[in-house]
Amino acid sequence: MVKIGNIELGDFPLLLAPMEDVSDPPFRYVCKQNGADMMYTEFISSEGLIRDAKKSIKKLDIFDYERPIGIQFYGGNIDSMKQATEIIEASKPDLIDINYGCPVKGVACNGAGAGLLQDVPRMVHITEEVVKSTKLPVTVKTRLGWDDKTKNVVDVAERLQDIGIKAITVHGRTRKQMYKGPAEWELIGAIKNNPRMKIPVFGNGDVNSSGFAMDMRNKHGVDGVMIGRAAIGYPWIFREIKHFMATGQHGEKLTVDERVNTARTHLEKSVEWKGERQGILEMRSHYANYFRGLPYFKEFRMKFVTSLDLNELYRLFDQVKVNYQEEVLTEQ
């Protein structure tokens, strides 16, 4: 049984990655329905929280059906991180996760996210202060290092464990790589197999199929995997991995009805959380992924991404079912 603090997550938990403009409550809902064991909010700026920025505060929204859930945040200022920790704790998540992995310039080059891989002592100090500021379990998500010359994550993981984090997730690329090239799981395995490590170690990067997840468990011994981009428009990946690990067999093929029903649920939750207009607009980025692989879908897609009429969108879902009733799509 893998545990983060007192949170029990099963034998090989599947975690939904915190993805900006993706991992909001509507998306998390459909992932939870399909087997995600642990989920995280979109990452939140500590500075935004302490300044009561509307967008940052909105990201604190969590719901009981999502539990266990972690709120992820980032920042490079110790006082701001401590204040933000108190604000986050008031939202009553199950844990708090610190982002030391975001590679985008606006974060990493301002001394936060993956930028702190260039100043490990400061990373450790910030983490220690956050741990001291809350009774909730604190976890960390990070990368292998800043670049190929500074792949110091084995040492970093030890130091963070020593000051009290309860789990670590490692994306198998450096900041310089961004999301390019294959993830280096051997180094993630080196963290897990370090005899000093006692906390759960989760791997992240390129987890896009049941077979890959199984291989990473068998080859590198990680306690679980975090799934990001592969879940966008394909939340069924969680249930497929679980079925494969339990039986050694792939489950029944995914039908178009299932795709339509899940996309519709996602839209309904989006409207419920954001209001009709905003919910419809923000859902537009998901349709191409939900219906990836359907032949001659362009006409439908154009209607999905231009309509602002909720009832029309529901009619479009019904039309997709009728037009593609013979189509069956296999595991991604």
Describe the overall structure.
The chain is α/β, with parallel strands linked by helices and 332 residues long. It folds into two domains: 3-247, Aldolase class I (TIM Barrel, Alpha-Beta Barrel), CATH 3.20.20.70; 254-329, Non-ribosomal Peptide Synthetase Peptidyl Carrier Protein, Chain A (Orthogonal Bundle). The chain is 42% helix and 14% strand. It is built from 15 helices and 13 strands. It has helices at 25-33, 46-50, 54-58, 78-90, 105-108, 120-132, 153-162, 185-192, 210-220, 237-247, 256-274, 276-283, 287-290, 298-304, 310-323, and strands spanning 3-4, 7-8, 14-16, 38-40, 44-45, 69-74, 95-100, 138-143, 167-171, 201-204, 224-227, 254-255, 328-329. The chain has an eight-stranded parallel beta barrel, surrounded by six helices. Strand 1 and strand 2 form a beta hairpin. Helix 1 (25-33) packs antiparallel against helix 11 (256-274), helix 9 crosses helix 10 (237-247) and helix 11 packs antiparallel against helix 15. The radius of gyration is 20 Å and the shape is globular. Mean pLDDT is 94; it is low at 328-332.
Tags for this entry?
332 residues; alpha/beta; TIM Barrel; Non-ribosomal Peptide Synthetase Peptidyl Carrier Protein, Chain A; 15 helices
Would you spell out the secondary-structure blueprint of this structure?
Layout: E1 3-4, E2 7-8, E3 14-16, H1 25-33, E4 38-40, E5 44-45, H2 46-50, H3 54-58, E6 69-74, H4 78-90, E7 95-100, H5 105-108, H6 120-132, E8 138-143, H7 153-162, E9 167-171, H8 185-192, E10 201-204, H9 210-220, E11 224-227, H10 237-247, E12 254-255, H11 256-274, H12 276-283, H13 287-290, H14 298-304, H15 310-323, E13 328-329
Parallel strand pairs: 3-4, 3-11, 4-6, 5-6, 6-7, 7-8, 8-9, 9-10, 10-11
Antiparallel strand pairs: 1-2, 12-13
Helix pairs in contact: 1-11, 4-6, 7-8, 9-10, 11-12, 11-15
